[in-house]
Amino acid sequence: DQQVKQNSPSLSVQEGRISILNCDYTNSMFDYFLWYKKYPAEGPTFLISISSIKDKNEDGRFTVFLNKSAKHLSLHIVPSQPGDSAVYFCAASDRSGGGADGLTFGKGTHLIIQP
Amino acid sequence: DVKVTQSSRYLVKRTGEKVFLECVQDMDHENMFWYRQDPGLGLRLIYFSYDVKMKEKGDIPEGYSVSREKKERFSLILESASTNQTSMYLCASSLKGYEQYFGPGTRLTVT
Fold first, then answer.
1. Could you tell me if B97 and A101 are in contact, meaning their C-beta atoms sit under 8 angstroms apart?
2. Which one of A64, A97, B57, B105 counts the least CB within 10 Å of its CB?
3. Could you give all domains of chain A from N- to C-terminal order, each with its CATH number?
4. Residues A13/A30, Cβ–Cβ less than 8 Å
């Protein structure tokens, strides 16, 4: 049972336009959400996160929106740049239980920025 | 800057061999994790640890074990490597409740 879903395996966007990556989750216990970016043959790099008490978090060109009622989050990148071409993973965590916080990842979306 | 290092970037082993993957972090993080990444499957959690000598199973622990004797070091052990364990292995660390930082990964091929 996939608890974090990224339904678009790939997305192509023109340079300078907005990229919108989507993510849905099913586990209502998740209270912390993250986006990671991954280049081939490298480890994922943390991009931005959002707590369930917020509905928006912004960091430079990156904004994450959270809609708890719909169990949906999205990552907006504007303007898109060639270096943004990578695989983006959505991840979620339940931080309420104590101990370590393993992340549950989606399968990723391959973003391609076209010149 | 947080630094997570993994002992090898590429590794080739034979079926049945015992394999050790080492991970070291330099930020005094309590939590450490091992994931594997496979095409079309994303990242899947194998094991994690929230303290020295503590370990917890993740989603896919079968065929793996771990060791955490020191806070900064977390080892993944394949007791008897099999071809279906060919994958990219990623180590991560974090403070409790915060984002995880990943190492560069080890591409393991089992022949």
1. yes
2. A97
3. 4-95+104-114 (2.60.40.10)
4. no
What residue segments make up the domains of chain B, in order of their start? 4-110
B90/A43 Cβ within 8 A: yes
Residue B30 makes CB contacts below 8 A (sequence gap 6+) with A100, B50, B51, B71, B94, B95, B96
In whole angstroms, give the CA distance from residue B31 to residue B5: 15
Out of A9, A49, A107, the one facing B99 most closely (by C-beta) is A49
Nearest CA in chain A to B33: A102
Provide the token pair at B74.
């977390």
Cβ distance of A107 and B42 shorter than 8 Å: yes
Smallest CA–CA distance, residue B79 to chain A, in Å, is 23
Largest CA distance in chain B: 39
Q: A25 to chain B nearest CA, in Å?
A: 15
Q: Which tens digits make up the pLDDT trace of A22-49?
A: 999 999 999 999 999 999 888 999 999 9
**CATH class of the domain whose range is B4-110:** mainly beta
Write out pLDDT tens, residues B35-65.
999 988 889 999 999 889 899 999 899 999 9
B interface mutation test: which of A101, A105, A109, A110 has the most B CBs within 10 A?
Answer: A101
Pick the residue from chain A with its C-alpha nearest to B88: A41
